[in-house]
Amino acid sequence: VAAGCYAKDLDFPAGFKFGAATASYQVEGAWNVSDKGVNIWDKFVHDNPSVIKDLSNGDVACDSYHNWERDIEMAAELGLDYYRLSLSWARILPTGLPNKISEDGVKYYNNLIDGLVAKGIDCMVTIYHWDLPLPLQELGGWTNPLIADWFEDYARVVYTLFGDRVKLWLTINEPIVVCDATYNSGVTAPGYLSPDLGAYICNKHVLLAHAKAWRLYDKEFRSKFNGRVSLANHLLWIEAASDKYEDLAELARQNAVGRYSHPIFSKEGGWPPGIEEAIAKACIEKGYPKSNFPSFTLEEIELVRGTYDYYGMNHYTSRLIRDALPGENLTVWPFGDCPDLHGKMETAENWSESVVYWFYLNPEGIRKQMAWLKQQYGDLEIMITENGMPTYAGLNDTTRIDFYKSYLEQVLLSIKEDGVNVTHYTAWTLMDNFEWGDGYTTKFGLYEVDFEDPKRTRTPRESAYYYASIIKNHSLDVPANYTDITLS
Ligand code: PNW
């Protein structure tokens, strides 16, 4: 990939689709209405308010549970081809299991999905975006092998309920956060630390859960509904800090991306090359009698291999990696370094900072990431399931406009120069929402939300006009008067 390359032809291919995303816990609120069950984020923030920067929580959030008509209106006026939303497991199944299905929970999603479909907007639905029902967590959550069956049973319920109208499914959002970030850092729900063990066990179980849900769709629903299913992986692009670290960088990519992709998307299946050996070595060094990293049986390898209809990619930022110096302090993945590989993460001088500590802007990273996916897993269809940038409050978000322009330009280069089959682009996010540990302090929204206002009024930012114009023109070549589009 040539550095500093700029696209000449700014039109998107015919059929390329644009969307925007949200997630249940981040927008819905209504945490205890009707018979909704408690989930791990409800409990995590109520028990530990200080883990969230502004001591806030998602109890009300954007109150999308009550404002769903406004959410549809925003999706429609932006001209979105599709809206990516997630389902709250405990809102649909209060106990986590299908012994009881909440009528009100189902009604909320039916209203939303029907309203979108009526406006000609497709639905991309994430089945799990981090809000596990509490009763399942109390039995170990993603470290209990039964989670694969619990997830499959939940998936059956939602395919049955919504599959007639939902044609794009994502089983699990960012398993690397569900596993690595959660068990290594304790800063995401359930806030339970289990370094060197929890993340590894979880890694295997999310793959089995995804695979069972994909196979269920393939066997029982595909012929009837003709939809497509994948998962959304979080891909941090990692490059060598200098030539001598090329091997380390490749191993770090296999650790960050491969552990959640290779078993599903590679031809041979199973764990990515070098990873079992590297983690075994790290475990022995840390004094464990043997590797804590689980192996796959041949049957499990076959169960997981090939369980995709496209590649779902969330991408935000990049890092450089080098060998750690002796005694150097290493923080944990995915927000920190790569201790299992003795790797220290850095950022390049020319990557500008955002208002969030982990986020540095490197537009070329998204193109290099997709080229790497193609080289590793062949000519897959890639859907960008999240991409966006944080700012502080304010409607004149020029930096966000520059972000979308520069990242989308690299997407065009991927398509036109690298021959990558990327077909969908999803902006994170439709509106400001509960940004996990950052609470409401940082804003990713195309629409600003007034969290002081009981009505949670939404107002379009300048970037909303810009994005609407890209969609309308099907091109990055937008007219100078793009704010003339009417948004409410
Ligand atoms: C994603 N990292 O999380 C999530 O899917 C969204 O729910 C979230 O609001 C959004 O990005 C913005 O933060 C991330 O390791 C997970 O760099 C991990 C990272 C970044 C974002």
From TrEMBL:
GO molecular function annotations of the record: beta-glucosidase activity
Pfam families associated with the record: Glyco_hydro_1
InterPro entries for this protein: GH (IPR017853), GH_1_N_CS (IPR033132), Glyco_hydro_1 (IPR001360)
GO biological process: carbohydrate metabolic process
PROSITE patterns on file: GLYCOSYL_HYDROL_F1_2
Record keywords: Glycoprotein, Glycosidase, Hydrolase, Signal
Subunit: Homodimer.
Family: Belongs to the glycosyl hydrolase 1 family.
The name this protein goes by in its record: Glycosyl hydrolase
Source organism per UniProt: Chrysodeixis includens
